[in-house]
Amino acid sequence: MNERSHQLRLLLEVLLLAAICYFFFFYGLAAFGLVGADEPRYAQVAREMFQRHDWITPTLYGNVWLEKPVLYYWGAIVSYKIFGVSDWAARLPGPVFATAMMAFVYFWTRRFRNGAQLDAMVMTACTAFVFAFARAASMDILLVAPLSIGLLAWWAFYETGKRGWLALFYAAIAIGTLAKGPVAVALAAMIILVFVALRREWPVVVRTLWLPGILIFCVIALPWYVAAQHVNPSFFREFFIQHNLDRFATNRFQHKQHIWYYVPVLLAATLPWTVFVFVALARGVKMLRESKGNALMAFLSIWVLVPFVFFSISQSKLPGYILPSIVPCGLLIALYIRWHAEQSAKASPVLTAIHALVSGAILALVLIAPYKLYRLPVPAVVFKIALPLALIVALAVAVVVFARGYAAVRIATLLPLAICVAFVLRAAGPVIDATQSTRSVASRISGSYAANEPVLLFDVPRQVEYGLAFYLDRPLPAAPPDEVVKFGTAAAGNQSRAKTLKDITNSLPPTSGNYLIILREGDVERFASEVPPNYQLEPFLRFAPQHLDIYHLRDTTP
To answer: Does residue 282 contact residue 333 with C-beta atoms inside 8 Å?
Structure first.
């Protein structure tokens, strides 16, 4: 290949990288509002730091909140400063970090395993958990991106002996430590030690423990930790003991699951490439004692398995914890396909058929999902459309792969996957917004005559508390905060929650004005008789998608 052709190919591949990162990470970030409890909570912490011009101490509703490190908040603060405070701006750090990770994956693979870079890029970026978490306002992708860059940099050092790669390894792990704490160091150390131990190459450990690299780590990671401890004397106990050691060793935060919990999570997280992941993983495990040229697949397999085992042992389990195991899966598949092509082997009919059926099933599930979110029966006509389309997609994927081999897997799978993502963002986005986010509820309140009235919450899910806190951005009522269940008080400070409507209304001072009270659908019937004489309870809004009732608590005092 001449120089001109080489440059043209590089340009086309970089353009494809940019297109994939834009579509899977950035496109439609505002298609639906912040969901769950974590997204609006993290977005609110960043907003308060931004408003206070404080780059050290995270706060939630004015209370010091030391659960997570600061990297996400810094990214969101910069985003708010440039674009203003919004839900999509709160999500922007994730796509930026994911894009940086994918650019590194592409150029790293092109440098060390040229020919596999397109598969590595597509199969990493288009894995379910990678693009889902990349689009979220959370810390997970901000941990995984530098951790992945760091581990690939370490492998480059292992293969070339050049210490510039080792310096990058230490810098990246330091950034990961700012994203989610000591888990970045623990995972990197365990993955490298297991790999070295199984290959009995102990001198590599000595070469890795490089004093300038350790200094680089300290210069990047330690200043914020030292400043946080200086400003907040309880930082070490709250962050390291409660939110790291206790989270791993106990069920203090009530995220206990079975030890096999991450088996189905891993199956779902690696869609649509799941079947290829396990075939490539099996081959990588076999290569542990083979030549250095094959050791990369072994390293990637260990990279998949170590976080999987580590978090399976943990007493606290959440789906996002497994994300560090997902990024190497794309690289594993790319190397497996490259090896398969070198062997001139034919595509396995069984493997191809399973992958094709999975690709078709994803499309069918996406078409059915809006009805499930609304908890409505799926009309027969939807099944009549979804099932034939799924079979057509499965047949098309199978034909292409059988005709062109595994090298065509990425193209055959990418098109239906892109259609699914576009459907979720454009067609199913409003459904997700209505059923999973409080953005619509807040919009109805803000556009009403009660827009400026204080809001009280009674026994609603945490995601409603945190979501309304972000979207309404209201000050607390004048009543003492430990007596009023309002967004932020119970959630942020773990203060006592009201048990009855009377507990709420009794906390209101006489002639305190009007309020909005948000309850679970139907709950108000139990407490209608407990409204104080000087208040009148009037229906305001029933938000059926989330089974919420909103009442206007009107002060009738003359």
So the answer is: no
